[in-house]
Amino acid sequence: MRAFISWSGGKDCTLALHHFLSNPQNKACYLVHFQTEESGISKHHRFGKDVFDMQSDSLDIPLLYEEVTAMGYEHHLKRIIDRCKSEGIYAGVFGDIFLEEHRAWIERICKESNITALFPLWGMNTLSAVREFCNLGYKARVTGTREEEEFLPLKGMDINNEFIQKIQTIEGADPCGEKGEYHTMAYDGPLFKKIISIIAILLLLLPGIKLSAENFRRIISLTPSVTQSIYYLGAREALVGCTSYCHIAKKDGVEIVSSAIKPNLEKIAALKPDLVLASGMISERDINTLRRLGIKVEILSTPKSYEEICTQFAAIGKLTGKEHEANQIIKNSRERVNSVYTKMRASGKRDRFFIQIGAAPIYTVIPHTFMDDYIKFSYGENIACDLESGTIGREFVVARDPDYIFIVTMGIVGKNEESVWRGFRNLKAVRKNKIFILESEQACQPTPVTFAETLEIINKYISEK
């Protein structure tokens, strides 16, 4: 059967598409989206045609993007149906689950137009539906929520087991968001040829950043990765202060105004910055003091994923007047990351990874951190995928028996750790000589450039025979 897919860009229409295509005799001929907002941005999903174009490209299904005029939604749906019928398409797929009134309206229009309306998800338990979406390997990000306080923390979350548990704690909330609790953008999964960029969308979700047209000319960075980002953007001339851990800026003679967690407030005030970019490690008391001095402070928390890395970088680009440069760097990074991911995914092999950060105590990369994305984009499995805390013992690693061990640390410490692990001769990674060291100044810096560089190094090691 040939059909068009009613497309909002979210998880429900993606799951409906998956169900429809589970029959090999079916073909999805078009993704159809009706835009009702004059701005071109959906007030619920918070994204527009650029995202739909990327989804269309990744799914390899053409997009029909219909702007709804004063003629009304029904008029435009019938117009699209007539076009599809002219091409031999006599069915439409819709992602409705239980809204009877909406289904009846769709069925009436389709009946009047002599086509078949298909509802692959109809009658599903909504908790089962969202779990199936995750279990199939699809990924989506919450891009909009209802305005009630209990729903706002959902914004920016990925649809995963953590999300499912969280929304079940909200009284009366539907797990699938069928009462408008939240809206999503699907960006990866079995039908996607490549991961979708959601940088522009995440700019709307990044907490604490109120972007304006103002370009700041005297910036103090209290985070090494932010300092590195400023250099990548070519905005060094705006940087007037940094931390003792911002090595590139120290060598450049930039004023040191802070340790990793304790800023020198007098020094900062003396430099008369128009913007201070701080991390979540700086105390609330110090932040409030700076603000009382009339200094604008933005908090840039450590990104929890590659997507958030790119989002934060784009935000820094806007703050420094380097939006074009930021977009180009992100585009280049994404191409490099997708290249590695596509290559590893094509192999069909999912190896087990242990990434160690530090030695006393041993600490491993855990889910919902940007470093876990090194494993995801390598199409691997994290041996710590079920942990909430990263502190482990060597016996844990022995029991999980990884295919690869990556030690993220500097100098002699890394070599010592490698030597210790090689003493565990029954480990698969030891037997196959798959223990590698990654430089922390590169692997632990959440920027689009260093992320792509580190991922490529990991890929190089994995590809070695």
Automatic annotation (TrEMBL):
A Pfam family: Peripla_BP_2
Gene3D superfamilies found in the cross-reference section: HUPs, Nitrogenase molybdenum iron protein domain, putative n-type atp pyrophosphatase, domain 2
GO biological process, one term: cellular response to iron ion
Keyword Signal attributed: yes
Residue span(s) of domain Fe/B12 periplasmic-binding: 218-465
Keywords: Signal
PROSITE patterns: FE_B12_PBP
Protein name, entry field: Vitamin B12-binding protein
Lineage of the organism: unclassified sequences, metagenomes, ecological metagenomes
